[in-house]
Amino acid sequence: MQVRNDWTLAEVEALFALPFMDLIVEAQRVHRQFHAPNTVQISTLLSIKTGACPEDCAYCPQSVRYDTGLAAEELMELEAVAEKARAAKRAGATRFCMGAAYRSPKPKDLRKVTAMIREVKALGLETCATLGMVTPAQAFELKAAGLDYYNHNLDTSPQYYEKIISTRTYQDRLDTLQAVRDAGMNVCCGGIVGMGEEPADRAGLLQTLATLPSHPESVPINQLVRVAGTPLADTAALDPFDFVRTIAVARILMPRSHVRLSAGRGEMSDELQALSFLAGANSIFYGEKLLTTGNPDTAHDQRLFERLKIVAEPPQHAHATHATTQAATGHPVPDESILARPDTGPAARDSATPEAAPLAAIAAALRESRTAAA
Ligand code: SAM
Ligand code: DTB
Ligand code: SF4
Q1: Ligand 1 in reach of 189 Cβ (< 6 A)
Q2: Closest to 307 in 3D by CA, of 352, 263, 268, 277
Q3: What is the distance in angstroms between the CA of the first residue and the CA of the last residue of the chain?
Q4: Most ligand 1 atoms within 8 A of CB, residue of 222, 223, 290 to mutate
Q5: Where are the domains of the chain?
């Protein structure tokens, strides 16, 4: 059995159609096969260039086309970015994500951003950037500067996409993802739910992600942040259980990936976030701001982690060191982060990840568990 890249839409829709409890139990079972339980990866976002974006993404407060009251800001200076990255590290983040409101970066901007990447990397943080569309040459430039992850979202299903963005195509996005892959970077790619899409569109988004030649290492599931002035400002709220279902299905389809409980946490109860972790989310954005909108207070998040006994995942490049040293000494490796760390067992199981069960096996397991319970 393999981690699958051939999921059909019918299979994805069948997962969405499972009774909620069955879906969550199955997602948590898959989660524990592939990931350390109770462990969440912590990223911090910084908008390094804000607003005045020429694109027309209907959800986005940064588009120049919508009056959202947002003050545009030029590309930040290197030292200011480094200071924010140091603060994120002190607060416990292990990855620093730099976002820019570009359609695609211009050569002089890319030179400045690569300098930022070098600086952030030198702090011992994992680096991530989201700068819009990039060419293969630009992707190689970013990789050479030390960029670990490139975030570029598909946002929604191929069908619903044209209702949301007209200034670039779905294929443009797939081309950027291919360029990022070919340059040897980790791919961070997900979407937004709660944009008025149908359930079939959530299935279509996840099926597209799960049938990419290799799954994105990181899959952010954003709940739309409804910003006044954008065309989606008055969209009806998504049923929270449908949000959790989306997380659970992403977890089952892409078992090795980190699924990020991304934008929208500011409007979620602690209980809904806990349910999302139970459904297989194992990454968050941490810090009081996303790009332009709010995120929970760090103190609140730390308290939530304590209450749930969730611990922060060490950076991927530290995993080998962490696991190796622990195996050699028999003791967990201390970490300077202020967030708690696992005190039992290695945090990651990525060296010996078992394979995913196909849908037929999932269905059989569910039938068996129902019979056993009857
Ligand atoms: N400009 C670049 C681009 O679009 O590729 C990078 C920055 S853009 C803000 C990054 C992602 O943020 C978008 O693809 C979208 O998924 C997400 N995003 C933007 N506004 C959002 C909102 N109001 N709610 C949820 N997610 C949002
Ligand atoms: C992603 O999937 N979500 C983040 C990050 N990638 C760049 C952005 C969320 C933005 C939410 C709206 C804002 O703060 O502007
Ligand atoms: Fe621009 Fe990115 Fe916002 Fe679209 S999502 S308007 S490309 S900043």
Answers
A1: no
A2: 277
A3: 30
A4: 222
A5: 9-320+355-373
**Per-residue b/e over 108-132, b at no fewer than 16 CB within 10 Å?**
ebbebbbebbebbbeeebbbbbbbb
Query: What's the CATH code, domain 9-320+355-373?
Result: 3.20.20.70
Give pLDDT tens digits for 214-263: 999 999 999 999 999 999 999 999 999 999 999 999 999 999 999 999 99
CA distance linking residue 127 with residue 344, whole number of Å: 27
Stated as kind and residue range, the H or E segment containing 338 is none
The 10s digit of each residue's pLDDT in 48-80 is 999 999 999 999 999 999 999 999 999 999 999
Q: Is the CB of 192 under 6 A from ligand 1?
A: yes
Its pTM stands at 0.86
Match 């592939």 to its residue by tokens: 34
Query: Tokens 């909620």 belong to which residue?
Result: 20
Q: How far apart are CA 125 and CA 106, in angstroms?
A: 25
CA of 66 to the centre of ligand 1 (A): 14
Place of tokens 């962490």: 322
Q: Which residues, in sequence order, are CB contacts of 244 under 8 Å at separation 6+?
A: 20, 24, 272, 275, 276, 279
Contact 156, 226 (CB under 8 A): no
Q: How far apart are CA 187 and CA 193, in angstroms?
A: 20
Give yes or no for residue 25 CB within 6 A of ligand 1.
Answer: no
Given the CA of residue 290, which atom of ligand 2 is nearest to it? Answer: 14
Q: Please give the Cα distance from 335 to 278 (Å, whole number).
A: 26
CA 240, 245, 246, 250 torsion: positive or negative? positive
Question: Count of H helices and E strands in the chain?
Answer: 13, 10
Q: Which two tokens stand for residue 238?
A: 């998504």
Confidence band of 317 (pLDDT split at 50, 70, 90): low
Q: Which of 206, 219, 150 is nearest to 183 (CA)?
A: 150
